[in-house]
Every structure is written in C-alpha cells, then in structure tokens.
Amino acid sequence: MPKTKEVTLSIPGWLSVTLEPNDVERQAAWKLYVELGTRVASQPFERSTGSVRAVLDSLYSVFVLTRSILREAGPDVACSEHSFGPLAIRFLTEILAPFLLRWHEPLREYEGQRKAETSIIGHERNWDRYADMCTDFAKLQVQVQGYVNALADIAGVSHAA
How far apart are CA 66 and CA 36, in angstroms? Predict the structure, then answer.
C-alpha cells in the first residue's frame, strides 16, 4: 500500500482541491477508478458505432456504483469536506446529474417515436439533438477523465494522463 501523501486534484472546469487520503479512501478510490475508467464515459466515443443511450445508462450506473462503494467504505471516507466521500458525491450531483437531467428525458421521448423497422442506432443518428448531445458529452468527458485521473491519484496508482 502506498504511503499516505497529499494529493492535489484538479478537474477541469470544476474543482481543484488538496487532500491527504487515508487507506480506506485509497481503497474506495481504486474501486471507483476501475469502474469509471473502463466505462464509455471515459473512453473515446465513436459517433458512427456508439449509442447515446448506452452513454446515459453507463453514466447512471456510476451513481449506483459510487453509492455502493461509499456505503461499503463507511464514514472513514468522509472525515472532512475535502475527503474522498464528499468529493465523490459532489461529482455525482454537480457534474453527472446535470448532464443526465438535461439529456435523459428528451432522448427517452425521442426513442418512443422509433418505428420497428428502424434500428436503435439508426434512430439515434436521426435525432435532431444527436449532435448537440454528442458535443455536450465530449465536454463532460474532459471532466470525467479528470475525475478518473484524480481517482488514480487518490488510490496511489499510476495512470495515463
């Protein structure tokens, strides 16, 4: 286990904070790093083959995973406002939730208009808001990648920046 050290987190357009993670925070950050670092939200999105529904579903699952990881870790991840737990919750409520709220319902309504003979991906591509959502998602990905890098720093593991 890496020795405890001060970590400065800098997530573009959102937050810059310094914390000194304890062992429980490092373990929780590692779990979330593995989960988020392997999801479409932190990977390049290919418009020709990717699904915006899959993006929204994957991002929503980050809420479920984060809650579970924080519950399992317990109060040792929330010793101060700059502890891992409160920062993880802030990421959900200040970064992910606004994106999901902006795009979930409009996409769901549009999906309800799909004709059986039209593929799901083809239908998504024809959505008049598809390009806007993809542009908004690209902006979100910068913050998500910053968060993934911050999780690696808290966990004390190397990562590709």
Answer: 10
What band does 160 get if pLDDT is binned at 50, 70 and 90?
low
Count of CA atoms in the C-beta half-sphere (13 A) of 75? 1
| 119-129 pLDDT tens trace | 999 999 999 99
Q: How far apart are CA 157 and CA 152, in angstroms?
A: 5
Give the pair of three-digit tokens for residue 30. Answer: 């590692």
User: Looking at the DSSP assignment, which residues form a beta bridge with residue 11?
Assistant: 15
Average pLDDT, the chain: 92
Q: Which two tokens stand for residue 136?
A: 């908004």
Q: Residue 7: which of 37, 36, 33, 39 has the closest Cα?
A: 33
Number of CB atoms found within 10 A of residue 1's CB: 7
Q: What tokens does 70 get? A: 């924080």
The residue length of the chain stands at 161
Domain boundaries, the chain: 7-155
How far is Cα 77 from Cα 28, in angstroms, rounded to an integer? 8
Average pLDDT, integer, range 28-46: 92
- By the 8 A CB rule, do 124 and 130 touch? yes
Q: How many CB atoms lie within 10 A of CB 3?
A: 5
